[in-house]
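Repro:
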Amino acid sequence: MTAAWLLPLLLLAAEDAPALPAPEISTAPATRRAIVLCGLPGDADHRKLFGESVELLYGGLTNQHGFKAENVHVLWPDAALEKDGPAVKATRGVSTRETVAKSVEEIRTALAPSDALWVFVLGHGHYDARQSWLNLPGPDISHVEFGKLFADLKCKEQVFFITTPCSGFYLKALAQPGRIVITATEPDLEVNETNYPHKLAKAIGSPPSYGEFDLDQDRHVTLLDLYLWTARETAQEYVSGELAATEHAQIDDSGDGRGTELQIDYLPEALGGRLRAGANPPIPKGDGNLARKVFLDWPLSPPAPFIGQDE
């Protein structure tokens, strides 16, 4: 992401522990923009749940990650209530197909090549054996239609978090070189309600400690760590509840439209991964390689700088 956003570095392991090669550092995007889109939540309990996650995302983006409030487009599925938080009250309109398209067009017009755009999609979805649909007020929108909204979008950094059921189908629809697409599920019949959006919102709005978050152990906090930590917390939810996992997050940042369940190389066997105790996590060569070059600002800074091996 940015030299300005480069997280202070920390020697988390012993001095003789092997270190992963540092990712390349890119220059800062000029302006950070975001869309936080929530489809129909369902009942009152789910409205509260999704509302809390939208508030965490909005607060984290604007307070910790360099997004100005005026550059974060919140789209909420109904009229704001007095008890709702500032994010829901700041909605640009009810999240209909027309409002979504209008918001994307406004951002496209404002985007400069050096800008960043992060897009978050929350809510419920369904699959009709042909397409995945996001449930919206009024007519729903398909993954194909959603992808077309962003087809010709050009800017330095593009990150999509599609966190609904059946979201894996968005991988191909959104694929583009230089774009990072993260989904809560595989492109398969993973149709159950997802935990991923709420774990993601917690990571951004109420983040864990630096040491807990650096799952690839490269002594940086990056978008890859955000993906891995959210996937780990989601897996832990199923293990703790003694439930079979019904969602398997995917990442595609190679632009080929085929997601990778990258977390299995970073999670222990108890959480469905294959990382053995004491083993070093791998360096991603395909999917994940771009995400590990997107640096995040982190509120809990390390106590001391990391000194590279050649210094």
